[in-house]
Amino acid sequence: MYTQERTAMSNLVVGGPVAVNSYDNAIVAALVENRPVMLVHAFNGGYLRPAELAASSHDKGVKLATALDPATKDAQGHLWHVTPGGFFGQRPLYFIESAAGQVTPPPAGTADADAGRGDDGTPKPQRRRVTVHQDAPQSTADTLQVGLPAKVADKWRGKNGATEDTQLWVVTVTPWGGITFVPITHPDAILGFKDHAVAKDSEARLTYNWGGDFTGTVINTFYPRLPNEWDVPYHHVFT
């Protein structure tokens, strides 16, 4: 169980405008410990999942599902890692990485494994990341893809020489215990849904942040949930 003593550390990591309270277990776990969490929408309880779960898929988007089917659960399609990715000024940035289709790196000692290692010396796992279209949100094309930096389509790659800049997000903690995602390439937009519809199988995309009620379709707030909390209503977990 997380305690109030964790709060100061999580505030530094989140960099948001409000404090993370001790009951926000999953926010702390996602941002500090990099534990996989579910991203559950505040409005209807639906969760984000990649449209395609296979590791070989790099040109499909993200959708909001309302039922956790066995195939999705077995493939970990309901789980995401909110992984630190650097800083923009003093604001920490994060990748939204799918646990579905995660590729196990080669064993230590091979040439491929030496390219990326964690702090403990073990090879970092390859995870597909949520990637933003260069022309989002004004483009009518799909504005999100889930893929590795080198394998997403050209319009989902960085303009400034950094392949990852279209995959970096500012994570903001809201006063009601949820989180919102703002892409650094489009700071006036947030992670939302096509046609502003928060419904079954809605296509996730960027939408202009015009303000509004957090339970509505403009400000899209997600409650991180630990996998073992799926059967508990979010208002019992976070209040």
Task: Explain what you see.
38% of the residues are buried. 10% of the residues lie in helices and 26% in strands. The protein is globular. The two termini are 15 Å apart. The strands form 4 sheets. The chain has a 4-stranded antiparallel beta sheet, with no helix packed on it. By secondary structure, it is mainly β. The protein is built from 4 helices and 12 strands, in the order ααβββαβββββββββα. β10 (189-193) and β11 form a beta hairpin.
Write a compact overview of the structure shown.
This protein is mainly beta.
Q: Give a short account of the largest sheet.
A: 4 strands, antiparallel
Structural class based on helices, strands and sheet pairing: mainly beta
- Radius of gyration equals 17 Å
- Note the gap between the termini: 15 Å
Shape designation: globular
Overall mean pLDDT: 75
Instruction: Enumerate the strands of the largest sheet in spatial order, edge to edge or round the barrel.
Output: 2-3-11-10
Q: How many helices does DSSP assign?
A: 4
Helix content: 10-25%
Low-confidence stretches: 1-23, 213-218, 232-239
Q: What proportion of the residues form beta strands (DSSP E)?
A: 25-35%
- Number of E-state strands: 12
Q: State the order of secondary-structure elements, H for helix, E for strand.
A: HHEEEHEEEEEEEEEH
